[in-house]
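Q: What residues go here?
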């Protein structure tokens, strides 16, 4: 009964690729989540401050400020440090996962995303 009274979890989807953003939003909206979009690193920092999301899905290759640097900046600010950041990226070479985790990401999901697994992969970070 209490579940229904809780506001939906808010997720910030940071990706400069419109198709990628729309796919993630379509998948997660069906799970009753509230979604906010950012199109580059600067936009992401502004949206985090304005929206205080429960989770951030962070592309790494972003215009203006890359995802690693955005994550480092957020994690170094007490106001945002507790927000989980999951790298959602096409960077799948050896060492890329380690770089994302070293920047402060709590999780790492490679693109192309598996539409059937995405929600299950991020759900532990929302509980």
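A:
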């Amino acid at each position: 009964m209490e579940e229904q009274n809780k506001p939906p979890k808010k997720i910030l989807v940071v990706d400069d690729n419109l198709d990628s953003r729309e796919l993630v939003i379509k998948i997660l909206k069906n799970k009753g989540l509230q979604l906010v979009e950012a199109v580059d690193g600067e936009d992401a920092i502004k949206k985090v401050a304005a929206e205080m999301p429960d989770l951030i899905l962070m592309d790494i290759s972003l215009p203006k400020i890359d995802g690693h640097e955005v994550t480092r900046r957020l994690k170094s600010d007490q106001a945002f440090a507790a927000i989980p950041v999951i790298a959602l990226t096409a960077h799948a070479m050896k060492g890329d996962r380690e770089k994302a985790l070293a920047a402060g990401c709590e999780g790492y999901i490679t693109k192309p995303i598996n539409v059937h697994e995405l929600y299950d992969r991020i759900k532990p970070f929302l509980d």
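A: Context that may help when evaluating the design: The first strand starts at residue 10 and ends at 14. The radius of gyration is 14 Å.
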